[in-house]
Amino acid sequence: MRNKTNLVVVVCVMTMANIASADTFGTEGNQFTIDFVSISGDASSANGMNISQYSPGDSKYRTFTDPGSDYRMGTYEITNDQWSKFSDSYGTVTGSPSNAYQQSATFTGTNVSTNEVSWYETAQFVNYLNTSKGYSPAYKFTGTLGTNDYTYAFWDIADVGYDSDNPFRNSNAFYFLPTEDEWVKAAYWNGTNLQTYATTDDFVPVAGVDTNYDQDYPQSDGPWDVGSGSEELNGTFDMMGNVSEWMESPLYSGDSLSGSSRGLRGDSYRTSYSNELSSSNRYASNPINEEYFVGFRVASVPEPATLFLLGLGTLMLRKKQ
């Protein structure tokens, strides 16, 4: 009987690992949802693994560190429809520097990944997700919202929610842009190690089937509708190809300048080479840049119910041992 109970609890806990959920934002005609998958499990065995195409000593060299806590990753990249409904609810998305807020999406399909968004614009999107639900904004801006003096800044020790390990993100925020380690774990961690590709079998993704890449592929002349490809290792879509995705974290570890280049991951529809979709490919862009092949996805802390069930499962396991 004891073994049977343990088995039931283990199955319960394991099936919670990639549970899907959806959160709703906005009201009436501007209402939209964001789907998430849960990312959990101890990935510390991969700590120190090179997750860059560079060698030790190169300034762009980077190794993986397990985020150390459960979180949720957006199932899909944010779409033009979600961005449009956000901006209609939020008002003018602008600020300083002004050249971070000049462009509109080049590819305009409703369910296409939104594009031509600067890092600063994505930060305002994420802040809206938080404040519209009563949470702390993830990212600090000074000045007046909706005006040209609205300026991004780091959180500092005097701010409630300041985290010395990550001055980008307020620790009381519920939604945020993923750090590079959070993004890499969601894309490539299979429970044992970091894979080369985000495919369920770690095989090279097939262009136009698993994901949208390869300029020679007839449909690869822009991002496609999110979810058009194959479901990936941890329940996500398009973490390889489609549009490159902004990271919360900077290109260089420990970089403490608010205007420093931010990481990009996943490459985009433009790449012709599958190795650029791999776990070792990293690059960056200036946060003011609005590029037609760059978009983003959102991450979140776990839902309280998920935390409770996972905690309950762990407690039951300990009692039965």
3D structure, described in words:
The protein is of the alpha+beta class and 321 residues long. The chain has a single domain (2-320), classed as Alpha-Beta Complex (paralog of FGE (formylglycine-generating enzyme)). 20% of the residues lie in helices and 14% in strands. The protein contains 5 helices and 11 strands, in the order αβββααβββαβββββα. It has helices at 2-16, 80-90, 119-131, 180-188, 304-320; strands spanning 20-25, 32-39, 71-74, 140-142, 151-153, 175-176, 244-250, 262-265, 283-285, 294-295, 299-300. The strands form 3 sheets. It has a 5-stranded antiparallel beta sheet with strand order 1-2-3-11-6. It has a 4-stranded mixed beta sheet with strand order 9-8-7-10, with helices on one face. Helix 1 runs antiparallel to helix 5 (304-320). It is globular.
Give the SSE layout.
Layout: H1 2-16, E1 20-25, E2 32-39, E3 71-74, H2 80-90, H3 119-131, E4 140-142, E5 151-153, E6 175-176, H4 180-188, E7 244-250, E8 262-265, E9 283-285, E10 294-295, E11 299-300, H5 304-320
Parallel strand pairs: 7-10
Antiparallel strand pairs: 1-2, 2-3, 3-11, 4-5, 6-11, 7-8, 8-9
Helix pairs in contact: 1-5
CATH class: Alpha Beta
- List the uncertain runs: 1-16, 307-321
CATH topology: paralog of FGE (formylglycine-generating enzyme)
Number of domains: 1
Could you say which structural class the secondary elements and strand pairing correspond to? alpha+beta
What would the average pLDDT be, to the nearest integer? 89
> How many runs of DSSP E, i.e. beta strands?
11
Spell out the helices and strands N to C: HEEEHHEEEHEEEEEH
Percent helix range: 10-25%
The CATH homologous superfamily corresponds to paralog of FGE (formylglycine-generating enzyme)
Separation of termini? 12 Å
Rough shape? globular
Strand order of the largest sheet: 1-2-3-11-6
Major pleated sheet: 5 strands, antiparallel
Range of strand content: 5-15%
Number of helices: 5
> What is the CATH architecture assignment?
Alpha-Beta Complex
Radius of gyration: 20 Å
